[in-house]
């Protein structure tokens, strides 16, 4: 809380850059996780994994008290390699199956790269330049879009 609200003001970033980097190293790194919520539940499936999708290791297990225990699949993680503000091609794939998401890459809370992630294979592509600090990505489709990531 203190780090986000005190250190990340632009004036503090400029005045205390080395201190910001030291404090940021203590912060937990976010992960991109996939949770799968089952849409239909049969009480006979108690104790079983209700996720039948072939491309994920996420699980949803029906318990005897009729609650569902979710375990996510981590699709993007790593030290000093966070993925925040994910975006997809919403115009064409909002509410539909998609393959690619784009995010802001953070090095201990310092945004220094843009990332493209294949959510099925977990393959990543990174754009990064020295002394460049991009902001949240926004997907802009090519006018004559043919492919999901054409933009």
UniProtKB/TrEMBL annotation:
Lineage top rank: taxon: Eukaryota
Necessary cofactors: Fe(2+)
Catalytic activity: an all-trans-retinyl ester + H2O = 11-cis-retinol + a fatty acid + H(+); all-trans-retinyl hexadecanoate + H2O = 11-cis-retinol + hexadecanoate + H(+); lutein = (3R,3'S)-zeaxanthin
Annotated membrane topology: Lipid-anchor
Gene Ontology CC: plasma membrane
Molecular function GO terms recorded: all-trans-retinyl-ester hydrolase, 11-cis retinol forming activity; beta-carotene 15,15'-dioxygenase activity; metal ion binding; retinol isomerase activity
Keyword Phosphoprotein carried by entry: no
Pfam families listed in its UniProt record: RPE65
Similarity comment text for this entry: Belongs to the carotenoid oxygenase family.
Protein name per its UniProtKB record: Retinoid isomerohydrolase
Originating gene: Rpe65
